[in-house]
Automatic annotation (TrEMBL):
It comes from Lysinibacillus macroides. The keyword Nucleus does not apply. Residues 4-234 form the ABC transporter domain. The keyword Transport applies. InterPro entries: AAA+_ATPase, ABC_SmlMolc_Importer, ABC_transporter-like_ATP-bd, ABC_transporter-like_CS, Mo/tungstate-bd_C_term_dom, NA-bd_OB-fold, P-loop_NTPase, Transp-assoc_OB_typ2. This is Spermidine/putrescine ABC transporter ATP-binding protein. GO terms for cellular component: ATP-binding cassette (ABC) transporter complex. Keywords: ATP-binding, Nucleotide-binding, Transport. GO terms for molecular function: ABC-type transporter activity; ATP binding; ATP hydrolysis activity.
């Protein structure tokens, strides 16, 4: 396993920047995810790490070795794509063995390596099956085995689960994470699915328009988003616009456009936020941090939407200038109906302040 360093890397396609001035350090053994909406530059970055694109500017290093202009087959990387690109009429073993044959390993060595990796992806007895006789999840594990059997220094995964249905996606996500941590291999994962990114990654890079917006652990990104884009993209959040009306030690008092007051803590705010009286501010409140009844920041509004998901009761509550999504987890209380008034509260520590 190797570390990956990206130094000032840009990739231009004519006038368009795929990515711009990217700087990034991925540690050896880390599970690192590129997350962002379509077109933000995830695949372009991955392709430069793989060697399928060369950067227009900047350098890429594996450990301390500069690989910026090294062709893909000299980089010792394993790759898995969205459409696994397996040979459908060949057996599982023939597919897995492909990269080893290209590298001219002996027959005995190939069989030994293929048997071992097949066990690791939980397909021990499937060696002689044809690919078109396997389920989508099993095919995905063959693709993973084929990438891993060459013992790569770095594993690159580009939306590897998007062809699977929801349940299988969750199962395969657990499998990939298990195999990755057992092997301790440096893994770079591309997805636009924030749940997947949160569940699997050691660290996440959130991208937008070819730029890095934030790099951090799933918890940092979720609880301490740097701006509204990240707060919105990672999980659901309510964003309420207001103005700072007063500051009293650690407490910040914000007034909304319709005159409601919220109180929160100074330390619960994005590092780029300056906290001056009169500043415009966005208050981010996660739906699950809102509770029923009176408490800190008590508000009463009208219910405009209700759904019961089993795990939670979700409401949308209208407060004239804004509405709030409210998620009441494991509630055995009577579920309220559309049109009813509801009183909610938000702990002072659960408000998070973001600037523009
Ligand atoms: P998706 O999730 O849709 O795959 P992405 O985040 O992987 O998106 P990229 O494929 O890296 O995004 O694209 C980043 C930007 O670069 C986009 O504006 C895209 O149109 C542009 N781009 C990517 N590849 C090319 C190319 N070969 N020629 C021209 N423009 C390209």
């Amino acid at each position: 396993m190797k570390s990956v360093k990206i130094e000032n890397v840009s990739k231009q396609f004519g006038q368009v920047y795929g990515v711009k001035n990217l700087n990034l350090d991925i540690k050896a053994g880390e599970f690192f995810t590129f997350l962002g909406p379509s077109g933000c530059g995830k695949t372009t970055t991955l392709r430069m790490i793989a060697g399928f694109y060369y950067p227009t500017n900047g350098h890429i290093l594996f450990d301390e070795q500069d690989v910026t202009r090294l062709p893909p087959n000299k980089r010792n990387i394993g790759m898995v794509f969205q459409n696994y690109a397996l040979f459908p009429h060949m057996t599982v073993d023939e597919n897995i063995a492909f990269g080893l044959q290209v590298r001219k390993f002996s027959k005995a060595e190939i069989q030994h390596k293929v048997d071992r990796i097949r066990g690791q992806v939980h397909l021990a007895t499937y060696g002689k099956r044809k690919i078109n006789e396997l389920s989508g999840g099993q095919q995905q594990r063959v693709a993973l085995a084929r990438a891993l059997v060459i013992e790569p220094d770095i594993l690159l995964l580009d939306e590897p689960l998007s062809n699977l249905d929801a349940k299988l996606r969750e199962e395969t996500r657990v499998e990939i994470k298990r195999i990755q941590s057992e092997l301790g291999i440096t893994t770079i994962y591309v997805t636009h699915d924030q749940m997947e990114a949160m569940a699997m990654s050691d660290r996440i890079m959130v991208m937008e328009n070819g730029d890095i917006k934030q790099i951090g652990t799933p918890q940092e990104i979720y609880h301490r988003p740097i701006n509204r884009f990240v707060a919105n993209f990672i999980g659901e959040t309510n964003l309420i616009e207001g103005t700072i009306e007063a500051i009293d030690g650690e407490d910040i008092q914000v007034i909304t456009t319709n005159g409601l007051i919220f109180i929160g803590r100074k330390q619960q705010s994005s590092p780029t936020f300056t906290h001056m009286i009169g500043d415009k501010v966005f208050i981010s409140i996660r739906p699950e941090s809102i509770h029923l009844g009176a408490g800190d920041n008590t508000l009463t509004g009208k219910i405009t939407f209700v759904e019961f998901t089993g795990i939670s009761v979700n409401y949308i509550v209208d407060f004239t200038a804004f509405s709030l999504k409210v998620m009441i987890i494991h509630s055995y209380d009577q579920i309220k109906s559309i049109g009813e008034d509801i009183t909610i509260n938000v702990a002072y520590d659960s408000l998070y302040f973001l600037g523009e």
